[in-house]
Write a structure and sequence with these properties.
Number of strands: 0
Protein name: DUF2680 domain-containing protein
Keywords: Signal
Pfam family, one: DUF2680
Organism: Thermanaerosceptrum fracticalcis
Distance between the termini: 79 Å
Number of domains: 1
InterPro entries: DUF2680 (IPR024485)
Low-confidence stretches: 15-24, 140-148
Order of helices and strands: HHHHHHH
């Protein structure tokens, strides 16, 4: 009886820690596909450079449903981080999550050219406007001097 309880406890802890480690494991969609398929990130990005979406790559490898689930979790964790840091309000975070839930349910893996992307609507692809148009770039000024206010 004790041995059985120990096994159940061990398995439960493994499941718990595997879920908790998710956020630390993936930091972009290519890593999610890589983790699900065993392909390298370089292979995934090579397919992206050929015009395929991450969703199409996941479909071709038979992991589309798990990819959608993992992407939803990944994006919600980013939103939670932004709410916790004060970058966005809790209300805006909830609105974005609601929109994500609706979009993921209808996601086919192929972009709809007639539909705004959530990143365009809610803050530039989860960057949430951190630069705020303050000219924070350090480029050469597009031929307008050297970029030092000239």
């Amino acid at each position: 009886m004790k041995k059985r309880s120990l096994i159940i406890l061990t398995v439960s802890l493994m499941v718990l820690f595997t879920t908790a480690v998710f956020a630390a494991t993936y930091s972009n969609p290519a890593q999610i596909i890589s983790g699900l398929t065993g392909k390298t990130e370089a292979d995934v990005y090579a397919q992206r450079s050929q015009g395929k979406t991450f969703g199409q790559i996941a479909q071709e490898n038979g992991v589309f449903d798990q990819f959608k689930s993992d992407m939803l979790q990944y994006k919600k964790e980013i939103i939670d981080q932004r709410v916790a840091s004060g970058t966005i309000t809790k209300e805006k975070g909830e609105a974005i999550k609601k929109a994500l839930d609706e979009r993921i349910a209808a996601c086919t893996g192929t972009p709809d050219p007639n539909r705004d992307r959530l990143g365009q609507k809610f803050g530039g692809g989860l960057g949430f406007g951190k630069g705020q148009s303050r000219g924070m770039g350090r480029g050469m000024g597009m031929g307008q001097g050297m970029g030092f206010g000239r």
